[in-house]
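Aggregate trends can hide what the representation actually does to any particular protein. In the encoding step, the backbone of a single protein was reduced to a row of integers, each denoting a local shape. The record that follows shows the chain in one-letter code together with its fold in token form.

***
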Amino acid sequence: MGRDPLRGGLTVYEFEKYLAPSQHEVNELVRRHPFALIVSNGGGKAGAPTVTHTPVIIERMADDGGFVGGELLGHIARKNPQWQQIADGDAVLLVFSGPHDYVSPTTYADDPNVPTWDYAAVHLTARVTVLEDPADGMHVVTRTVTELESLEPTAWDMTSSLPTFERIVGGIVSFRFEILEQRAVFKVSQDKPREVRQRVAAASRARGCPYGDVAELVERIGGEA
């Protein structure tokens, strides 16, 4: 067994009224927003966790269609010391941020009130395997490109670039993540009346929210209040 570097249970708190509405919504957030945080303990000053921003993609879902028991793949630069602080079997935290946006009290049409922030996020605790073999690295890189290009209007064909990948793949270290736990928060104004949610969605669309389509989430997941 590896170390559990997530001392103190480092993960997101799930508010009961903001739980994920379905596993499908969780899966889609991770698939459509793969630029994640890999969080591990060790190396940070004063015991602080070490964090890297990198794409993490789905390799295999669990048999029940969820993440627990499934596998994800990721990679970081070999020059990044975080990989040397992670041993096979260690636990790491993967953080995926979905659409989010500021909500001004002006949308509530009553006073006094307070501002808030609508957001969706998924935290996956995983047991990690470090993949140092170049063949494993090529698999992770090509799977990552395939997955990310699937989100593009016109997918790029990597075939002619594979020799280039093979020359530079030694500059990365890849990981396989076996998912142990899933937590998710979808806080999208579902505690507000329908007319308020409509104003929240309209305000987000009007200013062209740069953080993703929060308006769509508010309208789809907001509930019937």
Notes: The chain has one domain: 16-190. The longest strand covers residues 116-131. The beta strands are 35-40, 50-60, 71-77, 91-103, 116-131, 172-187.
